[in-house]
Amino acid sequence: MGCRQSSTALSPMERMAFDYILTQIPIQCQQKIIDLPKRKFLETYQNHLDAENHIREEKYLAAIDCECQAIDDLSKLLHSDIDHFIFADMNKLLSICYWHMEKLDKAYTRGQTALTLRLKHTPDDHKEISLQYSRLVSICIMQSNWKQADEYLQKAIVTARLSTDMPQGFVQGLEQILTYFK
Fold this sequence. Notes:
The protein is mainly α. It contains nine helices and no strands.
């Protein structure tokens, strides 16, 4: 996050990075992040950003290592507040990585955690919640867990219909999958 400085004040670039990260967190969850030592938070959060870069490069094992480190370090900073919103996207990323590596039990567990955090902190984010349900559908299908896949699929459709920014084709695609279950 820029050159290290001896003072505890953030550089303008670090301040911008910190402020940008805050914009990605619901207002009701921001205070705990604001109260953290900012430089330590940024250093820790860099692992999450590195994980995002690794997943774009399809380096799933490296992404998992970085993301697990980010979760471990952030949970220490947040005093084991593992229900904080900041862990939603981290668990989503881990779920995607495990899915690509066909570690389906881990993918399911991390995906379920991401969904739970989204539902708890941003229940009106219908687009992201629907996407998370649909990811869980894929995992359940790969596990031949048809009943759970059907339940998640129905929830994905209902939630997607509530979204104002979900492409109509996405909903139609989910509905087509549902016809295969019937």
